[in-house]
Design goal:
Blueprint: H1 2-21, H2 24-37, H3 45-73, H4 78-108, H5 115-140, H6 144-148, H7 152-178, H8 183-186, H9 191-205, H10 211-237
Helix pairs in contact: 1-3, 1-4, 2-4, 3-10, 5-7
């Protein structure tokens, strides 16, 4: 059916995006360190190779199980997958640019702009587009009550919780981190989003992560810990 084909196509986009998301901590670290090296503050590449390699290996392990499952079960033509790869590549470019530019702005305005106020400003800037998207969705979904589902009170409570805690509060913490850590290190913190996404997904599925996924999460944590040690030692020598 058309609905099943739509779900299958969405899986393609998600799997391609997951594979490219695995590159974000590494791409951010590389671009940030290149930028810092221009002003003489970069970390020696030899010291970053091992931590970034461990992070990369962890991301591969974490994504491999889902990606292999997708290859075995997909019945869609290859064109849909490659379209997903293209969109995922665009998201990689944006997600490499955003944390670096956001951190640079916050560091430049340290003491003048609090992370909480900057988060509120970002939310206010995104509000018009969000409202337009909401109106379009409600209009095409048969009205507000249909869009809210069979339990509108639970849906509304979930939306408020996601907006206040998972978006506003989480971004406040992210901005506070971005203002305090070197950009090459701060960008790697996005791996915790991947780790917790895997944990929450398996809680909802009532399943245990595979051994390969568990190894991947351990490698990610080890890689970040190694990066922290490298940057901590580097900051003492500046």
């Amino acid at each position: 059916t058309a609905e099943l084909r739509g779900l299958e196509r969405e899986k393609k986009f998600r799997q391609a995006d997951a594979a490219f998301t695995a590159v974000i901590p590494i791409s951010v670290a590389i671009v940030a360190n290149l930028s810092a090296a221009r002003i003489g503050h970069g970390v020696a590449w030899g010291k970053l190779v091992l931590p970034l390699s461990v992070v990369g290996a962890g991301m591969v392990c974490l994504n491999w199980t889902e990606f292999a499952y997708f290859l075995q079960t997909s019945s869609e033509p290859p064109s849909g997958f490659w379209l997903g790869v293209f969109y995922a590549f665009l998201s990689l470019l944006v997600w490499t640019w955003y944390p670096l530019s956001n951190a640079e702005w916050l560091i430049r305005h340290r003491g003048k702009m609090s992370p909480m106020f900057w988060t509120a400003a970002q939310g206010a800037g995104a509000l018009p587009a969000s409202l337009i998207g909401l109106v379009w969705y409600v209009w095409n979904d048969g009205g507000i009550m249909h869009a809210l589902g069979e339990t509108p009170e639970k849906f509304s409570a979930g939306v408020v919780f996601l907006g206040l805690v998972c978006s506003w509060l989480a971004i406040c913490f992210w901005n506070a981190m971005s203002q305090r850590l070197p950009r090459a290190l701060g960008g790697q913190m996005i791996i915790f989003e991947t780790i917790f996404a895997v944990i929450y997904a398996h809680i909802m599925r009532e399943q245990m992560p595979t051994a390969l996924m568990s190894i991947g999460m351990v490698l990610l944590l080890v890689g970040v810990f190694m990066s922290v040690r490298v940057f901590q030692h580097h900051s003492k020598n500046i």
